[in-house]
Design brief:
Elements lengths: L24 H10 L14 E2 L11 H8 L9 H14 L3 E5 L2 H12 L5 E4 L4 H9 L3 E4 L20 H11 L4 E7 L12 H14 L3 E4 L3 H11 L8 H10 L3 E5 L10 E5 L2 H14 L10 H13 L3 H20 L12 E5 H4 L9 H13 L1 E2 L1 E3 L1 H4 L1 E2 L5 E2 L5 E5 L7 H17 L6 E5 L5 H4 L1 E4 L2
Parallel strand pairs: 1-10, 3-4, 3-5, 5-6, 6-7
Antiparallel strand pairs: 2-8, 7-8, 9-14, 11-14, 12-13, 15-16
Length: 461
């Protein structure tokens, strides 16, 4: 019997639809100009396919919407909080659970307590808000992704791992007393959404134990990472996705989560801890800035939906579709000759804009140029993950480029169908036809932190 490649079908039915506005290229050129050539500043009504982020942009299930109607809005000790606390304790094994309105609130609380001048944070790769929250305290954030993770083309299973040798070197160099914590970002968003192996986290745990260091898991995509471990790492093929996540979380001292990803909700975050003394400090900060300890800036209905989402996300059919649908886009882009970060990650496809737009120098931001071209040609909104997001300036004001000039196409969960993704692939044919007709961009306005959110650009004629 011959095995046939079946059409990848969505493991869900559509109950409600949201209209999408079809616009002309002339309309989009004007809209982009008004937005300062920054897709973050576009109105959503002018976007046809929105791949800006997978954070809070997913579709909730019928069970989650039912849960919203059952949400208990009591200020303290709500039933919905108790439901969420039970689910999160079961997942993390940690006794102290702090809800927050989103992930960056959890980051701000934890890292403002751990950080400060001369403190060092070490990670496989800090994401943008993580780095900003750390650097805002005066601390230093250092990225040490493994060497294979720096090669966008090599096909290896866990390119999101931390470099263990460099980790030991940095501890020796700065002294363990100056290391605030080790952060493992799972999956490794800024490095192409690449997964992290259980073996790598186990080894980091050993190093932390040896030097009495705190290990934080920044794991908003823990279910997607568990899928990759199940399929790629020896000894895990018979394990459930949830049990894999529980084991990895069991290795950490703290867990930071933007629940807007693998929590399958539109708003929410979590900070969980093992240490009672640290949890008291974090709770005090939570009450001052977010809300009481049993709601942390979330409504009861938000917590109810999150509790359900954290269970649904480990469903086998859902995770298979999630990973394979993202891979479908990446594989077909690669077949067209588009240079993508390989292998494809779980939540997004990353394009190497520096390789695609060879005629644009890094100080003219080739990633931003591709972001603008995709919107102009097809109404597709995405984001640059390169020198706009992570670049810095030297003492003379010259750009210090980021390691990569990437463009991220982040796939919202349970939102777009196969035909939407095929449309994105069609637009890339137009991008390829442009050849060297594209142009670079210059920054005309930028804030001191997280400039990619609100910066303004101008095409270089």
């Amino acid at each position: 019997m011959v095995n046939k490649m079946r059409t990848l079908t969505e493991p869900f039915k559509i109950k409600m639809v949201e209209p999408l506005k079809v616009t002309t290229e002339e309309y989009r050129i004007e809209a982009l100009k008004k937005a300062g050539y920054n897709t973050f500043l576009l109105s959503s009504k002018d976007v046809f396919i929105d791949l800006l982020t997978d954070s809070g942009t997913g579709a909730m299930s019928d069970r989650q919407w039912s849960g919203i109607m059952m949400g208990d809005e009591s200020y303290a000790g709500a039933r919905s909080w108790e439901h969420l606390e039970t689910v999160v304790k079961d997942l993390t094994g940690m006794p102290y659970i702090l809800p927050t309105h989103q992930g960056r609130a959890a980051e701000r609380i934890l890292y403002s307590i751990l950080g400060g001048k001369d403190k060092i944070f070490i990670s496989n790769t800090h994401f943008d808000t993580t780095r900003a929250n750390i650097e805002y305290t005066g601390a230093k954030a250092i990225d040490i992704v493994c060497e294979e993770g720096k090669d966008n083309q090599i096909d290896l299973p866990f390119k999101g791992n931390i470099d263990l040798f460099k980790l030991k070197e940095l501890i020796q160099e700065y002294g363990k007393e100056n290391i605030a914590c080790i952060i493992m970002t799972v999956t490794n968003n800024s490095s192409g959404g690449q997964p992290v192996s259980m073996e790598n986290v186990r080894e980091v745990r050993k190093i932390c134990d040896e030097h009495n260091l705190l290990l934080v898991l920044d794991a908003c995509r823990i279910a997607e990472n568990s899928y990759f471990i199940h399929h790629r790492e020896h000894g895990f093929s018979e394990r459930t996705f949830k049990s894999i996540a529980q084991e990895m979380l069991g290795l950490a001292d703290a867990f930071v989560m933007s629940a807007k990803k693998d929590g399958l909700v539109n708003m929410g975050g979590l900070l969980t801890l093992r240490d009672e003394e640290l949890s008291v400090k974090c709770k005090n900060m939570l009450i001052i800035s977010e809300g009481f300890t049993t709601y942390g800036g979330l409504s009861g209905r938000d917590m109810e939906a999150l509790a359900i989402g954290l269970e649904e996300v480990f469903d086998e059919d859902y995770l298979h579709y999630r990973i394979r649908s993202t891979a479908y886009l990446g594989e077909h882009l690669k077949a067209k000759g588009i240079p993508v970060v390989w292998p494809i990650g779980g939540h997004a496809v990353y394009i190497d804009a520096k390789k695609l737009y060879k005629n644009i120098p890094v100080n003219q931001y080739p990633g931003q140029a591709l972001v603008c071209d995709l919107y102009i040609k097809g109404g597709i909104r995405c984001v640059e993950v390169g020198s706009v997001m992570f670049g810095k300036y030297d003492e003379k004001g010259e750009l210090i480029p980021a390691p990569n000039e990437l463009v991220r196409l982040a796939i919202p969960r349970r939102v777009y169908t196969q035909s939407h993704i095929d449309y994105v692939l069609d637009i890339f044919d137009d991008i390829l036809e442009m050849e060297d007709a594209n142009t670079g961009y210059k920054i005309t306005y930028e804030p001191p932190f997280l400039r990619h959110f609100t910066a303004h650009f101008e095409p270089i004629k």
